[in-house]
Amino acid sequence: MQATRAQLESLLDAAERLLNAREVQMLTTEEWDALEHAVAACSEPAANERTETFTVDDTKALVRSVVPMKGEPYQHRCPYDAYEAVAYAIAETKSGFNLEDLRGAANVPWSQAAVAFAFLKERSVVVPAGGRNHAAAGTTPFEDAMIEYHALREGDQDT
Fold first, then answer.
1. pTM
2. In the chain, which residues have pLDDT < 50?
3. How many CA atoms lie within 13 A of 89 on its CB side?
4. CA 63 → CA 13, 23, 59, 152, distances in Å?
5. What distance in Å separates the CA atoms of residue 129 and residue 89, rounded to the nearest whole number?
6. So what's the pLDDT on residue 158?
7. Are 55 and 75 in contact (CB under 8 A)?
């Protein structure tokens, strides 16, 4: 897989922040989270090189399952309370936002924010708004996010 320019810039930014923090002996959770997110973004297969599905597990967590064309399948989870926090963050945002904005506003780990964000993009609750930014597709994004989550959960119980 070849990394995109945005992925490489994200990784470089995280690495620079980590080096700066290390220089002054100040390693924070935020720097480690940023580096983890950047590395994960660079190693994730492109959308056309994977199959991605969403389910809700017994703990009510949103589960993102990815089967890459090459490599091993993997899963990431977003607990219900983290999903709800991301949905609130979208509803509170008045202008364009990206994954980093949502993660910070929701105060959840990168992987959890990424699962929620990917699901909400797939369900068209959020739509591209230029560059890396996205926007809510409708005027009630929190309610739309909750409807999509519960529709998925109820559909999973029938199978």
1. 0.69
2. 1, 158-159
3. 24
4. 29, 38, 10, 11
5. 17
6. 44
7. no
Domain 50-157 = CATH 1.10.10: yes
Q: Over the stretch 16-52, which tens digit does the pLDDT of each residue have? A: 766 666 666 656 666 666 666 666 655 555 556 668 8
Q: How far apart (Å, rounded) are the C-alpha atoms in residues 80 and 49? A: 28
Q: Which residue carries 């620079």 as its tokens?
A: 16
Token pair of 122 as six digits:
């797939």
* Cα(147)–Cα(129) distance, integer angstroms: 22
Buried-exposed string 92-128: b where 16+ CB fall within 10 A, e elsewhere: ebeeebebebbbebbebbbbbbbbbbbbbeebebbee
- Taking the C-alpha atoms of residue 91 and residue 86, their distance in angstroms, rounded to an integer, is 9
Sequence spans of domains, the chain: 1-43, 50-157
